[in-house]
Amino acid sequence: ALKLYVQRFDARFIALTGSSAAVNRAAAAFFVQHAHITQAGRETIDHSSGVFLLDIRGRLRAIGSSQALTEDLVHDLRLLAAQ
Questions:
Q1: Residue 22 binned pLDDT confidence (cut-offs 50, 70, 90)
Q2: Residue 60 in contact with residue 54, Cβ under 8 Å?
Q3: How crowded is the C-beta side of 10, counted as CA atoms within 13 Å?
């Protein structure tokens, strides 16, 4: 169900799930804020968003806004690729 939900936004999206502790650890590793909320009588999870740049070893190297300029992201990606 979660996979189908996130694919409605973009087929390339990957969703994470697991125990509350595992989700909390993953969110903390990426500095993502999240909370359970009730909206229109249904429980959902609200969360921050961003663009996360990881190096070849999977280490988080930069966090950008989803409104970041393409040129800025390209610049940062080039710096990461050169390492």
A1: very high
A2: yes
A3: 4
